[in-house]
Structure formats: C-alpha cells, structure tokens
Amino acid sequence: MKYAVIGAGSWGTTVASLCAPFVPTTIWARRAEVAREINRTHRNKRYLKGFELSPELVATNDLHQAATDASVIVMGVPSHGYRDVLVQMKDAIAADVPILSLTKGIEAGTLMRMTEVTMDVLPNHDRSVVGVLTGPNLAREIMEGQPAATVIAMEDQDEARSIQQVFTSPRLRVYTNPDVIGSESGGALKNVMAMAAGMAAGRGLGDNTLATLITRALAEMTRLGVAMGGDVRTFAGLAGLGDLIATCNSTQSRNHQVGYGLGQGRKLKDIVEEMSMVAEGVKSTRGVLALADRHSVEMPIAEKVGAVLYDNADVGQALHELMTRESRSEFE
Question: Which CATH superfamily includes the segment(s) 3-178?
C-alpha cells in the first residue's frame, strides 16, 4: 500500500506527515527545493515552519513518480492548479484508486467542485471512490497535536472506513459521511464567510457581530449546499458549522487574514502579495455567487464580500447595507 499526497502546502504536508508512520507515503512538491528539504531535514520551512515531519515521509518533485502505484491519492493542490496537475498525472492513476481532495474551492469558469473536476479529467474513474477530507482542520494546530476532528466524505463507505483507519489517532478523530456534495460545498462556501468574519474583526467589531455573522452565514451555506444536492444534516456537522466556526474565529485562516486586512482598509492586491499560500476564498467567491445565481439562492453576506473583493466596495458601507436589509422571518 502506498499513499500519494499531491501538494506540499501546509495542509498537504500535515496530512502526509500524519499518514507516513502508518502507511508508506510519498508527497509531491512543486518546488524541488521543498522536496529536498523534506527528505534531508524532515521539515518544510516554507509552508510549515517550526515543525518536524515524520521521518518516514518521502518527498519527490516528480509528479508521475508520486502517483505511480499509489493505492490512495490525496490531492492538496489549490483549485486554480488542480485540473492541470491532475491532467499531468492521469496516466498513472488506475480507475479504482480512491482520490481524496483536500481543496476547498470552486474552479473558475466551470464552477466545478474539485471532485467534479476529478471526474471531468478522469471520466472512466470509479466515482464512488472520489471524495473529500474536510472539517475544522487548521494545519498548525493539527501538527501541535491539539485534539481535532475531520470528515472523509465518499460514496463508497467501505473505502471511506478503510482510509479512516489510517488517519485516525488519539488526537484526530475521523468521521465518515456519504454526502460528498454537502461536505465539499461546505468547505468552499465557508471560505467566503471567513473573509466576512475577518472584515468584521479588522473593523474592531466584537462577539455579538461574530455570532450573528456565523449564524447567518450558516443559513446561506445551507441554502446553497442543499440546492446543489447536499444533505441538510451535513451543514450542522464538522464539514459545515465546524469548519465555519474554526475559520471565522482563527487568525491562522488565510481567508480570515485577507478579510482582516480589507477591514483595516488595506488593498486586496497588497494583502495577497504578502501571503505565501493561496486564500481560496479570494478566487472562489465569484464562483460561489455564480452558483447562487444558477440555483436562485439568496446569499447577501457572500454578495457583500464579492462587492468588497471585486468592486472596491467599502467594508463599512457593505456592513450597513446588510444591517438595513428588509426585516423578515429568521427562517426565510
């Protein structure tokens, strides 16, 4: 058995390091120097500074080598590069190999979730073993061994339970869920809401505001996720509410960091240029709004985030417009 983790960002590296003590694991790094550092020093200072990785973890800069003979492939590539990387390695992937996405985003243009991109690139692949790993999983806290939980969503629950055994530890509780659509859409949608929470924090707003935002954000996420075919129960679980709480509260969240800077009046371009990793919400908010339009779902918070990101709307004015919307029932 061999696990291949494709992508050596902070979360991909964390997942690979978790797996390596229990199953032979190879991680693919786009940068050759990152692969060399992991092999020589068991560290990834660029993306996960301050942590020692499992000494069993093997890194490579050769994508085909990483994917060949893998019994499970874990995709940790940002949404904008996901398709291209998968195309490059598709000849090395057998049709029955489970493919697990870590990516919480929407592909620009196609509006596809990453499992949909996977099936688009690999049309003959067994759909039942294409899934996601998602939840309130901030990489640094996982590496520190703080107690946490995650969800593996996959139609084939027997395969999901098999992968579950590899990831489960006394510090990481792993659940399974057959709802791929709901689990995956929850991960993408919460990034938009995390930016809204960051904007509020950047404006110096407090706990009442944050609680209001999280609650109404969950309502928006659930409406769209269910319209897309997700199970309403998923959004009350780790892939929905759990992930939303973590990213709306944490300064470790890249999407929260972007929102915080915008709330302080900084320019989006300057904020993004300072970051070494991708904040998925910056790119996927446009896709989320397009999906909301496709499914005729109202998402006022997401709309205001989009206005700030793409139309240079003022954060304070956006907040005012949200607070002065027409009064209605909480359940509308």
Answer: NAD(P)-binding Rossmann-like Domain (3.40.50.720)
Contacts of 274 (CB under 8 A, 6+ apart): none
| CA gyration radius, the chain | 19
Give percent helix, percent strand, percent coil of the chain, each to the nearest 5: 55, 10, 35
Q: Compute the distance between CA of residue 217 and CA of residue 175 in angstroms, rounded to an integer.
A: 24
Structure confidence at residue 309 (pLDDT):
96
Quick one: pLDDT at residue 3?
A: 98
User: Is domain 181-323 annotated with CATH 1.20.120.790?
Assistant: no
Ramachandran quadrant class, 156 (left: phi over 0; alpha: psi -120 to 50; beta: rest)? beta
Task: Encode 20-58: b = buried (16+ Cβ within 10 Å), e = exposed.
Answer: bebbebbbbbeeeebbebbeeebbbebbbeebebbeebb
Alpha helices in the chain (DSSP H): 10-19, 32-41, 63-67, 79-89, 114-121, 139-143, 157-167, 180-202, 207-227, 243-249, 254-263, 268-273, 280-294, 300-311, 315-323
Q: Catalytic residue positions?
A: 190
Residue 290, both tokens? 């397009």
Domain-by-domain residue ranges, the chain?
3-178, 181-323
- Identify residue 65 by its one-letter amino acid code: Q
Work out the percent of the chain whose per-residue pLDDT is above 70: 100
Cα–Cα distance, 320 to 212 (Å, whole number): 14
pLDDT by residue (tens digit) across 303-331? Answer: 999 999 999 999 999 999 999 999 999 98
Question: How many alpha carbons lie under 13 Å from residue 181 in its C-beta half-sphere?
Answer: 11
**Contact assessment for residue 163 and residue 152, using Cβ atoms and an 8 Å cutoff:** yes
